[in-house]
Amino acid sequence: xxxxxxxxxxxxxxxxxxxxxxxxxxxxxxxxxxxxxxxxxxxxxxxxxxxxxxxxxxxxxxxxxxxxxxxxxxxxxxxxxxxxxxxxxxxxxxxxxxxxxxxxxxxxxxxxxxxxxxxxxxxxxxxxxxxxxxxxxxxxxxxxxxxxxxxxxxxxxxxxxxxxxxxxxxxxxxxxxxxxxxxxxxxxxxxxxxxxxxxxxxxxxxxxxxxxxxxxxxxxxxxxxxxxxxxxxxxxxxxxxxxxxxxxxxxxxxxxxxxxxxxxxxxxxxxxxxxxxxxxxxxxxxxxxxxxxxxxxxxxxxxxxxxxxxxxxxxxxxxxxxxxxxxxxxxxxxxxxxxxxxxxxxxxxxxxxxxxxxxxxxxxxxxxxxxxxxxxxxxxxxxxxxxxxxxxxxxxxxxxxxxxxxxxxxxxxxxxxxxxxxxxxxxxxxxxxxxxxxxxxxxxxxxxxxxxxxxxxxxxxxxxxxxxxxxxxxxxxxxxxxxxxxxxxxxxxxxxxxxxxxxxxxxxxxxx
Amino acid sequence: xxxxxxxxxxxxxxxxxxxxxxxxxxxxxxxxxxxxxxxxxxxxxxxxxxxxxxxxxxxxxxxxxxxxxxxxxxxxxxxxxxxxxxxxxxxxxxxxxxxxxxxxxxxxxxxxxxxxxxxxxxxxxxxxxxxxxxxxxxxxxxxxxxxxxxxxxxxxxxxxxxxxxxxxxxxxxxxxxxxxxxxxxxxxxxxxxxxxxxxxxxxxxxxxxxxxxxxxxxxxxxxxxxxxxxxxxxxxxxxxxxxxxxxxxxxxxxxxxxxxxxxxxxxxxxxxxxxxxxxxxxxxxxxxxxxxxxxxxxxxxxxxxxxxxxxxxxxxxxxxxxxxxxxxxxxxxxxxxxxxxxxxxxxxxxxxxxxxxxxxxxxxxxxxxxxxxxxxxxxxxxxxxxxxxxxxxxxxxxxxxxxxxxxxxxxxxxxxxxxxxxxxxxxxxxxxxxxxxxxxxxxxxxxxxxxxxxxxxxxxxxxxxxxxxxxxxxxxxxxxxxxxxxxx
Lengths: 512, 488
Hints:
By secondary structure, chain A is mainly alpha-helical. In chain A, 74% of the residues lie in helices and 2% in strands. By secondary structure, chain B is mainly α.
């Protein structure tokens, strides 16, 4: 596949430049078109990059022509190449979907702002993934978060959406500042901001309080950003009240990107031995993760709004991923990465299908949606398939995740974890099954809005198409599981090794 | 040697679905004709596989590799062929029956009913011919999902509640107990293929772990309805009678016991189980289920509920025979799958016929009905005798073989259990036809115009009843296959 080293920087520059163009154009349609085109090229670049990384290569790109420890560099290996693809593909599909959906959710004069914000958010997320510089992570984190607050605030239920955005802003800022503080301490200890350089110099420091403090700050900040169990309170409101396209995008990407940062910092910058061996991070993360996925699955069962139910389910899924990550074994790490990828697609599909339902019915309350499979068969079918995948039914992507998660736990000898995972899967059966039952078997007439039900049609094609693309992806990765598993294994192998030194001659280099 | 693909058995039930939906409610006759054709084709396909197998062919499909070497494939072996033949033959009969039943009962959503039914049959075929435990597990789950709309067919609160219990017990059990056991098996041995003599030969495994795995698998197989995982079955009786008849007396529940037989023979291997005494606890559970459910059955006044508990008891026979784990008992278990299938489906057909013709569901209302519906109750009588295990009906043979197996493994007290259970069978089954024929009851409105059941129902009933008799004299086809099971 065609590859040019400058694709790396174009990945960031293209959406960043497209955002102001959207603002200049000011009309919804051209703005949408610009966003789509920019995003389309981003997808192409990231796929080409991934293709290039598959044989174990590492790409380094020096910005501004400054050599690495001094200047900022982009660093790409398997894990972030994979996630670049996932994020850009999800962004493209939700963007296609958003064109119709925001018509009913956002006033037309604000549409161009929506697309501009979206592109900035995408820039931020891609930037976090691609950069090899610790401080740069913070910068992109802020770009993505600020634009995300704005996108959430555009939600249909204005008052709640503003509150949700404000809440996210407070907690998100706290999280980001913690990360900044942590990076500051690391800089104090090592005198560098380049990831490879930090990790090299940290290895030389025996005992340093400032490293431990930096580590703690970063851990706490990342736990807020990933919505780990006790620090999740920003998430349900944000997912519920944001415009449906934003919910879908957010659910698929935001927490996943933070999880990537977590992986990079714990496994490579600090090193698995230091994080999990010396500082016993596993003992902190694991109980929280297990309580998280179990309690949140139970909470999800009792939700009346499907979006909120899915939000709690998302927190539970983060719990699964962190459980897998805190095993600190190759298998565990593989399982975690597989679930990051699979869950991104599954959750986005679920949120899009709910968005389609909201588009037609104006509500996501479970009780009001009886028997809608008759009027929206395609949407409901997609929801059911994605829901089964979330549960982990065989031949879906979720099964691949669960299988690896459970075998990894067995291999580590954590039998209680196995039991907890299975119990929580049963909860998933209940909360997804409840919705499916209402969709398929509850009488239409028993719902409150029976008048509006008669005229309801299937969602428009431009919304169904991205939805079914996601479903096809998640079913394909379920049947041909090796496609994801092999990638995840490669990424896990690389994550367990040290970051290659800045001057490593093996990497592919480029400079602007 | 050419390779014949068992996947041909999936095609007829799947390909008929577009026809069912296309013809829909408007052209009922064409819809049902297409199902009959598909059912006949399926039966022919199964016979073809049977003949090919006897001719020594290897019947295996392409493998689909999922990940890490986990794979799905179909492969025919004797137990599966018997199960496939049984289910496909009874699909024909049930279709004939349901034409009369569904129309006579004016059921709604018949197209959905037939569609789900066809999907369920396809899944049963996949289960019957599955080549490894993972394939069987997936087919097992697919059966649960595809029969769920059939259980909730009536759409009322009771049906929905039953549906929830159905999904909850079957899927919950299989995901929480069966799946981990499969994962552990795969983790230890690196395979889930059904292998003659079991897959644990290469690895050292402690007797305790064997016991735990076996318990997980047997209890996790909720479809086998071993107590305390039986609650779904009586609840599922809210389904239309053809569903109760084919699925909840034959296809679904038999998939459960079929799975147990398969894991005993091909995953653990008979040797490992007898060597480690892994099945001892479970044998107590099975014996307890046999007796307890018979007692409960006596208390039930609702005809279908009584039959459901009778099914639970009979399924426990099969589980018991499988767990005894010697060659003779396994043969008995497989034979009992067949004999119980024909007996119980006849009983359910009769219950449905009574419901359609006389609108009676309670046993206490049946007194004196025998004169109005002589054929139905005669068939009921014959089938009941087969279930009880009296000659000249197939039921006696399977019970006999199971007892031989018991004697071989020297569990003599189990003979007492089986004898007592047979007596209980007499006590709860035979009073029904007797009171229908010989009792006059006041509450029965004599002026009420009750006629025999619809003709298609009677045809179906007579086919299954006759088979009960014929199989007693013609057991060779089954026995020939049973002799081919590779235990080592």
